[in-house]
């Protein structure tokens, strides 16, 4: 930078050492702009060189740093150290997250229930948070998370198998599980066990509580599917939208209905998705605070964007299962 600035200062020496009152305003602005341009150019070139040294790793393998913060993986920690060379270097304290999660008590397993954190286990039970399933894994090795959102009536009926009505009425989960479902009779039930105990032949309307936005979108999507049987190709293409998961949906209602299983899903554009667009974010997005998600390949990723990037680079159909790292 000095090689660039010294000739510049020497060239404008007669303006710099003259009294300020005698200098022309446009000449002062020219010198100021050139100096600012030189400094910005140096910073941009330095950032580009730094970014090239970072190894982008989309997989979530948490590391606890010496600053007490959790980093998505060792490559993210190294990238932070490279990006801030004048700060104290952050060392690895231990593998895993800094704040160790304690298993909740029996009372904690009953709540709090939130539509943002509820997940469905492969045993047909719904849990208020993925951490609860992770803690139960130590006692029930076969348990895992099936998908984000509460279990449906069909999934609960399948898990109870024979005599499902008797089991649904006698299970304690009928009293404390808060997994709201809507029956085909437009009645809202506090959970699938209560619905099956009341009516063993009940069917579920997708979307949770009756007349909620998800449930209304799912109903409109079902109606469109019936109307598409006699529709022309041009009429069908008019409703097509592209989602943030790089999948093409038949309509905006189909996309909104699918959002109950993917909180990161939103509409990107009207029409089909463009295959030539690279979903991989810039390197700076990888070193932000990790928001881990679990993919269908049972691997944890630093963020939802990292999952889409890995799916594109590996050329595999990896889709989002639930927030938080996978249950190992």
TrEMBL record:
Location in the cell: Secreted
Annotated SUPFAM superfamilies: Kazal-type serine protease inhibitors
InterPro entries named among the record's database cross-references: Kazal_dom, Kazal_dom_sf, Spink4-like
Name of the protein this chain belongs to: Putative serine protease inhibitor dipetalogastin-like isoform x2
Domain Kazal-like: 48-100, 267-328
Pfam family, one: Kazal_1
Entry keyword set: Disulfide bond, Secreted
Cellular component aspect of the GO annotation: extracellular region
Organism encoding this protein: Nyssomyia neivai
Gene Ontology molecular function terms on file: serine-type endopeptidase inhibitor activity
Main location: secreted
């Amino acid at each position: 930078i000095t090689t660039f600035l010294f000739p510049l200062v020497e060239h404008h020496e007669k303006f710099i050492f003259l009294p300020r009152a005698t200098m022309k305003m446009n000449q002062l602005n020219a010198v100021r702009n050139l100096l600012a341009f030189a400094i910005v150019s140096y910073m941009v070139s330095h950032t580009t060189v730094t970014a090239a040294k970072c190894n982008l790793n989309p997989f979530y393998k948490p590391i606890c740093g010496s600053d007490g913060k959790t980093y998505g993986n060792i490559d993210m920690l190294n990238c932070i150290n490279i990006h801030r060379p004048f700060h104290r270097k952050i060392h690895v304290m231990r593998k895993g997250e800094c704040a160790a999660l304690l298993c909740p008590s029996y009372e904690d397993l009953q709540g709090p229930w939130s539509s943002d954190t509820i997940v469905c286990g492969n045993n047909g039970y719904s849990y208020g948070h993925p951490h609860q399933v992770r803690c139960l894994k130590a006692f029930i090795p076969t348990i895992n998370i099936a998908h984000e959102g509460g279990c449906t009536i069909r999934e609960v009926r399948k898990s109870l198998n024979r005599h499902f009505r008797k089991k649904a009425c006698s299970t304690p989960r009928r009293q404390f599980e808060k997994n709201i479902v809507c029956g085909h009779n437009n009645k809202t039930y506090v959970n699938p066990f209560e619905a099956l105990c009341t009516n063993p032949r009940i069917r579920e309307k997708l979307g949770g509580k009756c007349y909620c936005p998800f449930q209304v979108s799912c109903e409109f999507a079902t109606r469109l599917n019936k109307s598409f049987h006699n529709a022309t190709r041009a009429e069908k293409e008019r409703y097509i939208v592209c989602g943030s998961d790089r999948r093409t949906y038949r309509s905006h209602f189909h996309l909104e209905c699918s959002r109950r299983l993917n909180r990161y899903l939103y509409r990107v554009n009207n029409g089909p998705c463009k295959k030539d667009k690279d979903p991989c974010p810039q390197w700076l997005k990888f070193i932000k605070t990790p928001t881990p998600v679990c993919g269908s390949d049972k691997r944890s990723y630093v963020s939802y964007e990292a999952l889409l990037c890995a799916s594109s680079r590996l050329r595999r159909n990896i889709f989002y299962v639930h927030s938080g790292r996978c249950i190992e």
